[in-house]
Amino acid sequence: xxxxxxxxxxxxxxxxxxxxxxxxxxxxxxxxxxxxxxxxxxxxxxxxxxxxxxxxxxxxxxxxxxxxxxxxxxxxxxxxxxxxxxxxxxxxxxxxxxxxxxxxxxxxxxxxxxxxxxxxxxxxxxxxxxxxxxxxxxxxxxxxxxxxxxxxxxxxxxxxxxxxxxxxxxxxxxxxxxxxxxxxxxxxxxxxxxxxxxxxxxxxxxxxxxxxxxxxxxxxxxxxxxxxxxxxxxxxxxxxxxxxxxxxxxxxxxxxxxxxxxxxxxxxxxxxxxxxxxxxxxxxxxxxxxxxxxxxxxxxxxxxxxxxxxxxxxxxxxxxxxxxxxxxxxxxxxxxxxxxxxxxxxxxxxxxxxxxxxxxxxxxxxxxxxxxx
Length: 373
Description:
single chain, alpha/beta, SH3 type barrels, Elongation Factor Tu (Ef-tu), domain 3, six-stranded antiparallel barrel, five-stranded parallel β-sheet, 8 helices
């Protein structure tokens, strides 16, 4: 009898990874579960207790009938992900730590650990797919079939070596089917709410968390006319397109006297780090919020090289429709020019490129087409 292929599954305590483990066992693999602890600075409170998630993951492993191991990657996470996260915020950019976590922890530290356990493959509960292109011999990263859950955006930094060792069992399924399977086999977390917070922050107030690591440097909030209409608490605590938490909602009458529309909300449009000014505008479609082009660097291509395509599509943020654009590649980065201006293009976020359902890779946005006033 042939020896079963060993697959190590990242069990997070959530329903997606739980069903992934079940499906792999049904397919005849020898399945081992690994629970990754990535944060421990204050991991005992209401916002982000991995202890609760581990109990859920262990209960899932018990129902499915697989072993589970608890592995601590907190040191790697702090060095490779959190340190970069803080550097980016201090520079006034808005990073996406989930993308870095996937590239550095879930598909590097975790993958290395799984290989030491004798695994042929690893698997996670991400909504994405991997396909071997027979004509090129390259592995392709594809969107998950459920358009509402596709997570290829967060996985775009994975390389050929990582993809060749990875399975995404729920990538072929809609979320409703994943929930149905979980209930059918009696998984204790079948109805567990999806996590939406960054793993080490959870659902806590983000500004309160960031304030523990980054000093506040208050400064003026100005409108497009250059008039000061409020005070910000520090540019690191704001992101482009932000509407809530500006502290200027109560000055509508005053804003109207200054030429603003008293009924339109304010949005963060620009951050001048040199002068410590937060620029805000009224109205979702204000010209300052619309970018016809962007620049991205720190590139990562799934195929190992830049695509030869010039007409392409891109997302400048998660849960955004693919936006048609043209791609220009040079020695240090890429320039994207969009058919329709993009809203609140944010330095630090990722521009991820697609050719239909194929995720090609992308880079970190460094600038949009704006110049400060």
